[in-house]
Amino acid sequence: MKFFDVGFLHPTNTKNLYRLSFLIIVLYTISLFYNLHLAPLYSEEPRRALVALEMLLNNNFIVTTILNQTFYDHPPLWNIVLAGSIKLFGYNTFALRFPSAFSLLLTGILAFYMGKKYINTRFGILSAFYYLVCADLYFYFSVTAEIDIFYSLLVTLSIFSIFHFYEQKRFYLLFGTAYFFITLAFLTKGFASFAFIIITLGSYLLYKKDLKRLFSWPHIFCALLSAAAVYFYFYIYGSYENLGRYISEMWGLTEQRTLLSDRFDGIIKHLFTFPLNFLGVIFPSTLFLLFIWEKEQIQNIKAQPYLVFLVIAFIANFLVYWVSPGARIRYTYMFFPMVVTVLSYPLFLRLKETNWKHKAYHTFFKAIMAIAALVCLVIPFVGYFSILPHLKYTMPLFGLLLILTLIFHHKTIGYTKHLFVITFIVLCRLVFDHVALPMKALTSSGAAHKSYAEDIHKIIGEDETPLYVFTQEDLRTHIQTPFKLYETASYLEMSRKSIVMNTDQCELPGYYIFNKQNLEGRKPLYEFTISKVDLALVKID
Question: How many C-beta atoms surround the C-beta of residue 129 within 10 A?
Fold first, then answer.
């Protein structure tokens, strides 16, 4: 007992707690990237992959394409980031997923820096850790090549810079930094990005009774610079492609998420479910609501200017999503560090207490730790996992680590106890990486697309003869060529380093992928089925 309570891991032993925190962040970083490449591409990943791959292969980083046809969607910055990662790590799925996982880590570092600077170091560590293990981010979106975590990082940088430089009264840096990052956010996801800076500046300056700052030269100058950057981007784009259609399509994506996009009953349902979903996906910080519903705690938050700013920025911006039925939880990831930081503060102030709230919180995690350890010990005996024979050796080790974490969690107190909650969640992610991702690689429906691509590549060989996808339908309807062909096409482009081109003609020599209904007597070299549509590879000389 002495070792835990008055020795090495006692909350007063600051140096050792910082060492433990460092070990946790090292373990966390490993968990983000371990087996990241294994799961097949799925959902929106193939589309993102194709755009980035074709940027590299076409050497055009302005106009986005899919199957070599212009794809009017988001601006190109995220795809440029993916392309840069491919250049760094090679043509593989790890390269595609690395930027999203790394963006999560960077956002956590930002949350730590702000918490450390404006509260204290321990609070910065605790709040950043609880942000980094938010369920939706840590176990789902950080394992994908999706856009949202990177976009949220840019928006968070813009919003946090408003408070940071306002406190220092450095207004050119305030507006310059805020508009710089929000302009990058626009180049990532379009027009809606500017709403964040307008709403945050307006609401915070109103609170500070300093709205005149909006009409100051620093603001006007930096806003004009941002507008000039947007104009310059559109000017360059217009020299390549149809600018009018591009802006129309981009605005259409923004409009889909507003009040105009749904009926009244959809709006009412969204008003009830959206905040509940939001609270669910920030787990385990959801449980911190136990500690906040006291008048004294509200006053404690009000006493911290940084936390007041976060509350204002969150409420003002979240309201837009709350009343927009087209909004999805992933559009709100930039609010996660704000909300987790605010919710963590009442907990942080009461870490030394042992009332029923703290007991309930930690009892819940003790039960979950025990269940997780038992699951690890049982997995080797479950037939479903027999396709991964190494699990019979590795899972008992994970089970032992979870049992040790449970013991340390039980024996320690206060701040240290929460560090072992974080350690437990990180170990759960490592188990997920070790079991779920290899299982997906073998059993997921997406695994077939990688197999199709490998088979087609073997038939074509290293021949530089072009590969076409034949369809006379519009590319974005995905009728004759199903959307999931994009998965096969993305693997083909990664392996062949050559674009799979969409075409409505079959006169040029090359390999073609047809809907079997359109073969017209041509002999297939390879047949496969995607989404109940039979496809065939043929060669036309």
Answer: 25
Our CA dihedral for 353, 358, 359, 361, rounded to 10 degrees, sits at -160
CATH architecture entry for 447-540 = 2-Layer Sandwich (3.30)
Q: What is the pLDDT along the chain (541 residues), one digit of tens a residue?
A: 444 444 566 777 788 889 999 999 999 999 999 999 999 998 889 999 999 999 999 999 999 999 998 888 889 999 999 999 999 999 999 999 999 999 999 999 999 999 999 999 999 999 999 999 999 999 999 999 999 999 999 999 999 999 999 999 999 999 999 999 999 999 999 888 999 999 999 999 999 999 999 999 999 999 999 999 999 999 999 999 888 888 887 776 665 555 545 556 667 888 889 999 999 999 999 999 988 877 788 899 999 999 999 999 999 999 998 988 878 899 999 999 999 999 999 999 988 888 888 999 999 999 999 999 999 999 999 989 999 999 999 999 999 999 999 999 999 988 999 999 999 999 999 999 999 999 999 988 888 899 999 999 999 987 788 999 988 776 654 455 566 788 999 999 999 999 999 888 888 899 999 988 888 888 999 999 988 888 999 999 8
Answer whether 405's CB lies under 8 Å from 420's CB. Answer: yes
Residue 281, CA distances (Å) to 98, 377, 435 in order: 22, 28, 22
Residue appearing with tokens 């009244």: 264
Tokens of 515: 């809907």
* Residues contacting 425, CB < 8 A, separation 6+: 133, 138, 284
For residue 174 the two structure tokens come to: 């305030």
pTM over 0.90: yes
**Rounded Cα gap, residues 468 and 512, in angstroms:** 5
In this structure, the chain runs to a length of: 541
List 69's β-bridge partners, or say none. Answer: 66
